[in-house]
Amino acid sequence: MRWLLRRSSEVVLIGGTSKLGFNEFRRTVVSSCRAVLLPRFGGPEVLELREDVIIPDLKPNEVLVRARAVSVNPLDCRIRAGYGRSLYEPLLPLIMGRDVSGEVAAVGNSVRSLCVGQEVFGALHPTAVRGTYTDYAILAEDELTPKPETISHVEASAIPFAALTAWRALRSIARIKQGQRVLVVGGGGAVGFSAIQLAVAAGCHVSTTCGGESIECILAAGAEQAVDFTTEDHEQSIKGYFDAVLDTIGIPETEKMGINLLKRGGHYMTLQGEAASYADTYGLTMGLAMATTVLMKKQIQCRISHGIDYQWAYMRADAEGLDEIRRLSASGKLKVPVEKTYPFTQVREAHEGKDKRIVAGKVVLELN
């Protein structure tokens, strides 16, 4: 196993001696580590913490990260319960997790922007099968960015997956601009709250629906209006029309509301795309084809009836987006509040807390 390590004054090959004339020394190879594996689908009890999971060789563009904190996303719980089984079942057992914050332990030989010992944070693509619930996570160079010194590993690990999902919708699909009006349906969750902060940072006028317990935090983040969906009638409370609607709830009622509140030429984006559910029901090939047909039909209908764009929004790795997220996080303009942390060894308890809604907010696992 040979990985290129970069420090400010030396280049070292793990398991070998530098031939570049700098400080020559040998370093012990870390060949295995702890990881949380999903051997089968089910409740939190199916998660297994194993001590000797092999660390694979790095590809040229990959980075080995010594994880210090990893967050528990709703997607993690859904995958564990069987969501996306058409894709993941043939690959079991797989390592759970998407977000990570830690230090660079090694880099592939084409990596240029990061070096060993640097604190970083980032997130894997939703379809990654070697996740971040592990002592040593592997991510591509463009899936990581330097961690701001102003935030902790716990705070950093809560941000990237949710914020990149929001960034993909608002900046990549809707291409929001200063002065536009943005509605976030479900602004109290991690993606919704990230979307609010990204839209405010872009100079947009932001409204949102949320639970009453989130209103104070959302208004403090810069939203101009926060409507409590449990007590207020949105049809009476939300006035005017919007350039973009991000629907993090994605049920028929919120979809109808969002579409009806859009200006002509506006963008409706939902996080509840149906590709995975169709693939799970009808098989990967037929299911994805059916999902594409359903999406195209909705897009045509919305274009004809309302003159708007309709999209399913998914998280994607995006170096530009991650760089903006880093800058906003460093300046305190983007944060995802963490409600509870668990030791890495209590991953089952963390998932149970999310499943049973014992913990409503963001959950993070801390690693020694």
TrEMBL record:
SUPFAM superfamilies the UniProt entry points to: GroES-like, NAD(P)-binding Rossmann-fold domains
SMART domains for the chain: PKS_ER
Gene3D superfamilies for the chain: Medium-chain alcohol dehydrogenases, catalytic domain, NAD(P)-binding Rossmann-like Domain
Top-level taxon in the UniProt lineage: Eukaryota
Name of a matching Pfam family: ADH_zinc_N_2
Domain Enoyl reductase (ER): from-to ranges: 42-365
PANTHER family referenced in this protein's UniProt entry, alphabetically: PROTEIN AST1-RELATED
Protein name from the UniProt record: Reticulon-4-interacting protein 1, mitochondrial-like
Organism: Salvia divinorum (Maria pastora)
